[in-house]
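Posting this for the archive.
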Amino acid sequence: MARPLDGILVVSLEHAIAAPFCTRQLADLGARVVKVERPGAGDFARAYDTRVKGQSSHFVWTNRSKESLALDLKDDGSLAALKKLIARADVLVQNLAPGAAARMGLSFEALHEENPKLIVCDISGYGDNGPYRDKKAYDLLIQAEAGLLSVTGTPDAPSKAGNSMADIAAGMYAYSGILAALLQRKQTGEGSHIDVSMLESLGEWMSFPMYYAFEGAAPPPRTDASHASIYPYGPFTTKDGAVILGIQNEREWAVFCDKVLANAALARDPRFDANARRNENRAALRKIILETFASLSTAQVEERLDTAQIANGRMNDMAGVWAHPQLKARGRWRTVGSPAGEIPALLPPGRNSSFDYRMDPVPAVGEHTEAILKELGVSK
């Protein structure tokens, strides 16, 4: 079945996570993505680790279904070949160092004259203007700048998120921005320039804690794995482990007291009869919950929570996610090729009844160079 982006050519000067994650999702929808890499080493993310049959965990995640074109862009002939490819492209994505693409003549303004339909998406740490424009930006630094570290961790120490949240946020906004630009091009016939900043992307995701601290109010406290303003909501130990549960409203709170804690009167305790008061008195309430759970196994607590229809979940480690029964039951796993052999891969989120996602191999460095140059009529 035809995919939404069949026939769309994307050229990407990309490394690390934000741009590769964006373009992999375009490839999932059928776009032909040509990844331009340095000859030899390629994208430096290839060397982050060797956890997947000798390959980098970050790289295999963000680079399936792409073609690898190895070019030395300091060489005039190679740069000319790249420009010839871009002249045919629908989309150019780049997250090189600030100003690097423009110095090679690959700015939107320079390219638009020759290819008016071209969509150019620049991804950077701080955007293409302003006092921070030229600052280096890595995921952890943006997590700090955007305030994520200030609200994540324990009361005593901030913690970074365990995944590349700033990169992922920027990659998602670049992806959705390109899809919007393709739709707009159908109406106007013209390409456009998209300027995506990691700081602005993660800043959008920080809107709840920013509004919570509106006009100088106290920010949300760091509360380990618990919610900063809703209680009870988070992990609670049992006789043999722990459960994660969440109470969202007063009806659920009353049911939780009656069916899970076997203490219906607790729902009317003036310390706990509204979320704001439960939050203020969370230490006292936590003690009561833990005293009840101390004599119950995790399975028993989960059974009570499920019977009462109180939201709960397992605190899975990575092995638990690999083996998650829901992912298996919904057929979410596929295998894709790679230079080291087949590896498992999750299908993109969102099943669509009209097409199947593209799930093609992860390329070796320069695997498609010869074929692409031949297609352009360029000799090595």
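The radius of gyration is 25 Å. The first strand starts at residue 9 and ends at 13.
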